[in-house]
Amino acid sequence: MKALILSKKQVHPPTDGESMAVYTLGKSLECAGADVVWFSLDSSGKSLKELRYDEENQAYTMPINTAVASHFFSYQRKYPLQVRRFYNADAASSLHEVVSHYEPDVIQIESVFLATYIEGLRKISHAPIILRLHNIEEEIWQNRLAGVRGLHYALYQKMANDIRRFERLAWSSADLVLPISHADNELVRMNCPEVSTKVIPIGMVADHIAQPNRITGGGLRLGLIASWDWSPNAEAAEWLLDEIVPQLNVLDNWTLHLAGRNMPSWLVKRRSNQIHILGEVKLALHFVRSMDVMVMPFKSGGGVRVKVLEALAAGIPCIGTSKAFQGLAVADNHEVLIAEDAEQFVEAICRISSEEGLWDSLRQRGMHYVKQHHNPSTIGEALYEKYSNSIDKKD
Predict the structure, then answer these.
(1) What is the pLDDT of residue 47?
(2) Higher model confidence: residue 207 or residue 88?
(3) In the chain, what are the helix, strand and coil shares in percent, each to the nearest 5?
(4) Would you say 179 and 383 are in contact if contact means Cβ atoms under 8 Å apart?
């Protein structure tokens, strides 16, 4: 069985949580017996200006410009601005050449933002088109509306409505939709009951290199890593620094470490003796492993946060809001600690610093959860079996 995977981010090598999730699932398919070809879009601006091919990994990467200004008056104005940023005519042409040459049995599209390519793919290939959802975009935009006032509210409301209509059209245009959580699956089925779906969780390997123990009584290294050009992440950092950190004076000997790409200048300026601003790090997993606790103060966003799974897999306990853990079958005081306001965050941080055995029990249960619910081999085999059977195609 031959599969082509289309991703809106560079996958070889993976550069963030989303591309790691794409990479892990693709590799799981390969391990299950599939022949996988990758076609990735790269908006980083660091690549060459033309299509490049990695023969060892059968991976194509196409540079594109996703800047809002360059797509504001695009001829594809029938699509929401958030979506048409990822459509590129040269990329579509190159993709069609790859598909025509490779003749895949299935085409797996990673992200609803790439659904604009489906119409063209239908014209050149008879392969079923699979749409994998990393989140429900409508949820994200509705969350953003809650914090918007004045003239911006009307703009955000329009963008939320536009993405809602497009998202449901995209679900309906695919032959199979793959939500990453049962909650997302219920939303798809509720809004588009005619759509065929299968829940495929994010795969993650439990990491036994994680530190086996720590000394209680202070000295906590608190960590947060994110892509800072996504507004829910910047919002989380602002809340953390303005409301949570000032209350940590009840705890001795702690440091907070913030890392990630596209860090804004206002965040860099918050550097102090206790607040370490690292910017982009070479390997996110090395950063996570070096922490005692990962903090996840997210108030908005959607889908499953890969960074939570990475931390749990590495044996690093997590403290976060229920929003941070949505889509995961984790429980407060079992695999994670849940805190909904600043006072609860401080209380949880103090507990994990001083309560005997709490850090280790969270560590062990978190790793067990990942092994039980997010085993890449099990996920890859289930998806391979689904692809090997007939998939009803749209007319």
Answers:
(1) 56
(2) 88
(3) 45, 15, 40
(4) no
Residue 241 per-residue DSSP state: I
Length of the chain: 395
CB atoms within 10 A of CB 229: 12
Separation between Cα atoms, residue 388 and residue 71, nearest integer Å: 39
Q: Measured between alpha carbons, how far is 74 from 103 in angstroms, rounded to an integer?
A: 31
Sign of CA dihedral 334, 28, 90, 79: negative
Comparing 64-68, 134-138, 306-310, the range with the smallest average pLDDT is 64-68
Dump strand ranges (E) for 98-151: 106-110, 129-132
Q: Which residue has the higher pLDDT, 19 or 59?
A: 59
CA distances from 142 to 32, 156, 306 (A): 38, 9, 21
CATH of domain 2-203+375-388: 3.40.50.2000
DSSP per position, 47-112: S-SS-EEETTTTEEEEE----HHHHTT-TTTTS-HHHHTT--HHHHHHHHHHHHHH--SEEEEESG
Name the CATH topology of 220-373: Rossmann fold (3.40.50)
pTM, entire model: 0.83
**Residues of CATH 3.40.50.2000 domain(s) within the chain?**
2-203+375-388, 220-373
